[in-house]
Amino acid sequence: MPRESLEPIERRIARARAELEAVQAAVARAESELRSASVTTRSRDRAVEATVGPQGQLTHLRFLDNKYRNMTATQLASSVLEAAEEGRSAMAHRVVETFEPLTRPSGDTPEFGGIDIDWERLFGDALGAGGDGHGRRSRDRLRDEIQEDDADYSPGGRPRGASRT
Asked: Helices marked H in 100-163 — which ranges?
């Protein structure tokens, strides 16, 4: 087979390798950028501030303006969960924004369709907790369970029907 007929395939392979190296470098930059990223959010009642790290982990929690002193345990728990979930959702969206350009097909190498990321598997409902309300269902269900638990206890903190000993 003459060398000239191999040229196009060699060039295509070289372009594909260059594209792969560029994608690997872009992934490394994105990972480096996100490694030190964090998002801080507040509950709607402005009582709790939560900071979430790049993997959705709660890294810092602040109770603002001593508002927690006038809150029931249920209200405080709800505010903590709300702030943490909002932070987790915001961080998930930031990760998607960072990596999404790498999921698109390349114009230079049509055989390379971009990296394939299963966002749902990676983040679960964290992406839906933003503006569309999908992620709120689990938090609302948890809030209902907390309120039901409070109803099962007398004001002294003992389960209803339990006697002092």
From this structure: 119-123, 136-151
CB 159 within 8 A of CB 153: yes
pTM of structure: 0.62
Of 104, 108, 102, nearest to 12 by C-alpha is 108
CA angle 158, 84, 97 (to 5 degrees): 160
List C-alpha distances in Å: 126 to 8, 107, 147: 46, 31, 23
Q: Is 95 exposed, middle or buried (0-12, 13-18, 19+ CB in 10 A)?
A: buried
Ranges assigned E (strand) in 14-81: 39-42, 48-52, 58-63
Convert the pLDDT of each residue in 57-75 to its tens digit: 999 999 999 999 999 999 9
CA proximity to 54, closest of 24, 32, 22: 32
> Distance between CA atoms of 62 and 56, rounded to whole angstroms?
17
How far apart are alpha carbons 113 and 23 in whole angstroms?
Answer: 11
